[in-house]
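Students often ask what a 'structure token' actually looks like in practice. Rather than answer in the abstract, let us consider Polar amino acid ABC transporter, inner membrane subunit, a protein of 221 residues. Its sequence is given first.
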Amino acid sequence: MESLQVMKSALPVLMVGLKMTIELTTLAVFFGCIIGLFMALGKMSKNILLRYPSVVYIEFFRGSPLLVQLFLVYFGLPQMVGHPVDRFWSAVLVLSLNSGAYIAEIFRGGIQSIDRGQTEAARSLGMTHVQAMRHVILPQAFKRVIPPMGNEFIAMMKDTSLVSVIGLAELARTGQLIIANNYRAMEIWFVVAIIYICMTVLISEFFVNRMERRLKAGDRS
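Now compare that with the structural description of the same chain:
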């Protein structure tokens, strides 16, 4: 009974941390989608001025640890600009850039999965490459990338726990702060784990799967 009371009393505070986690994840994936789409198109471009920078960006953010990227921006950037940077927006910047690199590969895979004959057919109808990409290829690619995008959202939600190193109290950090006060690590970490699991199930089952079913139903109709 005492353990249940500890978990119950910690829940409202953990919800505040969860709010921070959701905000960081949503912003990171939103900006990451924008960055990732342009980087994917850049990597597939025949123009080396677009392709090489895109490749370097993707390899850097996929190849280096997220923790190092956080340190590089939060502790390194102030040395360059001469004044401290905001914790929250530093975290959003790094998470967005990191997510963008992975989303770029997701978009690239989705675009390349579309039969090239469709591009050729669009061009034969008088469309430019940009028009064919916009009206024919991308709409189909977006449908195919929904499952991996859902996985990226879940992975990013878990990765937000790393921003605690720069002082942001997201879900995991909030759990640490509660434990520092009541010394009930087992109960608090159990609740934190359950919250992460619930969020994962919510995203995968009720968002990604439902969206897939709606898109498939739209295709059949």
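One point worth highlighting: The chain has one domain: 1-218. Ask yourself how you might have guessed this from the sequence alone, and why that guess would often be unreliable.
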